[in-house]
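1st attempt posting a full record on here, be nice pls
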Amino acid sequence: MPLTLRLLAIRYEAKAPDDAEEAGALIESLSERALDLSLLESARAGFQLLADVRWEGGDISNADAYMRRAEFLTRGGSDRERILGLGEAARCLVILDKDLRQAEAMLLEAR
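the predicted structure (as tokens):
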């Protein structure tokens, strides 16, 4: 499963999915399964990918929700995981032009 999520990330970074809904459903299912198996880093990466796919598909509110879920999963991780999670979440908020104060706070926390 972690490998499948990584391969999907590579695939969708190279070319946006033709059907964002179908891709999103697959990524969400894999991310939830990773979470059920306590594969927190894989789940976090999956929800981050899901946020990116939703954003590219124009679904901004769900992109924000999945990004926040990915960030939440970093709270119990290592310092490195936490810093990466905060940075990715802040980047997403800036791209969405949403909650810029929160994005700044996340970057300050990461620092």
